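Hi all, a correction to my earlier message: I attached the wrong file for Recombinase family protein. Here's the right sequence:
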Amino acid sequence: MLNPSDDIPHLFLRAVSYLRVSTPRQASNGFDEEGHSIPAQRDANRRRAHELGALVAAEFVDRGRSGRSTARPELQRMLDYIRSHEVDYVIVHKVDRLARNRGDDAHLTDEIHAAGAKLVSTTEAINASPSGRLLHGDHGVDRGVLLPESRH
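and the right structure:
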C-alpha cells in the first residue's frame, strides 16, 4: 500500500485505488489469466485518476485473494480509510476486482457512496444507459457510480 497522504491539498480531488488478483501464483507472477496484473491495474487506475483530476491518496492491494468474499484485509482497510478520510473516488480496474457477485457489489457500492465517494472502473462503461445499468445492475447507477463513458 502506498502511504496514505493526508497532506494532499484540498484543491485536488482525492482517489483511492483498489487492486486485486485472485491467486497467490498470479500475485507472485504479476499476471492473472485475464492479463490484469497488479502493475497493469495500478497504471490504469492512476491514469484514470489523472483523467478525473484526482490524486491517488492511498492504494490498497489484495494479492492472491478471491473476490467471492468481502473478507479481504486490504478491502476492509480501504473501507475504513474512506470512512475516515475525504475521498472523491474509489478506482478499480474492473468491478469484479471489487466484488464477484451482485449482492456484494451492491453492498460495497452503497458503502462507498455512504462515505461520500464514487466508484470508478477504468475499463467498464457503467452509467445511466440501459447497457451500463445492465452491466452493473440497476443498484449502482443512482448510487454514485462513475465510469469512463467517453471510451465506450
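Sorry for the mix-up. The mean pLDDT is 78.
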